[in-house]
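Quick start: load a record and inspect it. Here is NADH:ubiquinone oxidoreductase complex assembly factor 8:
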Amino acid sequence: MSGNGVVWGRVRSRLRAFPDRLAACGAEAAAYGRCVQASMAPGGRLRKDLCAQEFEALRSCFVAAAKKTLTGGH
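Running the structure step on this input writes:
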């Protein structure tokens, strides 16, 4: 059972690092937020795929952050 504690230690370490990794996506999150906000302005209409480019950039950043967290990369 001692090996189990080692595994949980690694998992906890990765989870602690995840918010810092996501913080690196601030520019992408801001761009997506601006796009959605602009489409919600008076007269604007939020439609499917209107902010698809910004969303894809944010999603790609999150995926990269998650991969770094899982592999322990820096």
